[in-house]
Amino acid sequence: MVKIRLTRLFRFEMAHALHHYDGPCSNIHGHSYKLQVTIVGTPLDNEADPKNGMVMDFGELKKLVNRTIVDELDHALLLREDSDAELVDTLRKLHHKLVLTTYQPTCENMLLDFKTRLRKQMPEHIALHSLKLWETASSFAEWYASDEL
Ligand SMILES: Nc1nc2c(c(=O)[nH]1)N=C([C@H](O)[C@H](O)COP(=O)(O)OP(=O)(O)OP(=O)(O)O)CN2
Ligand SMILES: [Zn+2]
């Protein structure tokens, strides 16, 4: 059966701090993240359907990734849930867009979180192939489904 990969790029601005990290990244700082999402599936084979030939409508992929990841994280501050309680309280009182994580918000951990979230939302006939997350213009992490085998 024919398989085609589809890829779409997303961007979001997000701040984070690496809890107890032994360097400047323990301070709250921001990145312009770039996320590449690649899915794989078989193009629709139905002449009567206007989406014939599509694995998934690019627009649907955009909506799925935006509602699953980008809407929550864009212009948010990601902190580990065991960060200073006073700081967390103050940020909440000031109505900052704060997201608390169970994990250290590294590029690697964020990718694993995104992979889990996206897999739950994927239509049955489509598989998540890979994810690539740029934290800076020169640093990125990648996840490939094939590495799980
Ligand atoms: N393996 C990882 N290492 C680091 C991560 C990460 O997510 N995974 N994150 C950070 C910091 O959050 C941040 O990205 C700073 O990294 P750094 O490379 O030090 O960034 P610079 O701005 O200093 O990069 P330059 O290109 O040298 O200016 C740290 N490590
Ligand atoms: Zn950082």
Automatic annotation (TrEMBL):
SUPFAM superfamilies: Tetrahydrobiopterin biosynthesis enzymes-like. Keywords: Lyase, Metal-binding, Queuosine biosynthesis, Zinc. One of its GO terms (biological process) is tRNA queuosine(34) biosynthetic process. It comes from the Bacteria. Pfam families: PTPS. Zn(2+) binds at residues 16, 29, 31. Its EC number is 4.-.-.-. It is an enzyme of class 4 (lyase). The active site is at 25 (proton acceptor), 75 (charge relay system), 135 (charge relay system). One of its GO terms (molecular function) is 6-carboxytetrahydropterin synthase activity. Coiled coil: none annotated. Its cofactor is Zn(2+). Pathway: Purine metabolism; 7-cyano-7-deazaguanine biosynthesis. Binds 1 zinc ion per subunit. It catalyses: 7,8-dihydroneopterin 3'-triphosphate + H2O = 6-carboxy-5,6,7,8-tetrahydropterin + triphosphate + acetaldehyde + 2 H(+). Belongs to the PTPS family. QueD subfamily. This is 6-carboxy-5,6,7,8-tetrahydropterin synthase. It comes from Pontibacter burrus.
